[in-house]
Design a protein that fits this description.
The chain contains 9 helices and no strands. The chain is mostly helical. The protein folds into 2 domains: 41 residues, no CATH class; 120 residues, AhpD-like. The protein starts with 16 loop residues before the first helix and ends in a 19-residue tail after the last helix.
């Protein structure tokens, strides 16, 4: 396997350093995933731009984290599931909801269950969801705009989920308490 070592603020290409510095300021450290994405300044910038756009959606911060976690589970990302489990907890998502998203279990809250189910279907079916899936999402209190905003979360996590599949990014110590192993593909 080709080795992709995470960059630091000093080893990253010059054009990636502002993005890494912003992460350092926000999180207190540079996550290994961002260090790997820094190999390509354009990829790091795209990832961070989409992340910023997800924050501008009409989803609550907790819903944004559930979306990121759901997409990461659907894509089997062993790096992003732990990372977004922590981020969801910090956003106030209840532990039982985080556990249900991670395991595919039932979420008691109908709205959050609909959010997880719709986002999962969008990823699993490559966007080919039908009227029944959209109708269930809308019936849970979401809007047509939010149907489209789910795509932002899918695009955001596609970059890091696929980067992890390619680069096997080492999990940061901060995310270790949420270690997760993907189920075997059917």
């Amino acid at each position: 396997m080709t080795k992709f070592a995470p960059h630091s603020l000093t080893t990253a290409p010059e054009a990636s350093r502002p993005g890494l510095a912003a992460a350092q300021k926000k999180l207190g450290f540079v996550p290994n995933m961002l260090g790997v994405l820094a190999e390509s300044p354009a990829t790091l910038e795209a990832y961070q731009t989409i992340q910023a756009n997800l924050a501008k959606t009409s989803f609550t911060p907790a819903e944004q984290q559930i979306l990121a976690l759901t997409v990461s589970v659907a894509n089997g990302c062993t790096y992003c599931v732990p990372a977004y489990s922590l981020m969801a907890a910090k956003a106030g998502v209840a532990d039982d909801v985080i556990d249900a998203v991670r395991s595919g279990g039932r979420i008691a809250d109908k709205r959050l269950r609909a959010l997880r189910e719709f986002a999962f279907q969008v990823v699993e079916r490559r966007g080919r969801v039908g009227d029944a899936e959209i109708g269930a999402f809308l019936a849970a209190g979401f809007t047509k705009a939010q149907v489209l905003e789910v795509l932002i979360a899918a695009a955001f996590k596609l970059i890091s989920n696929y980067a992890n599949h390619i680069a096997d990014v080492p999990l940061d110590n901060a995310f270790q308490p949420y270690f997760w192993k993907a189920k075997e593909a059917a």
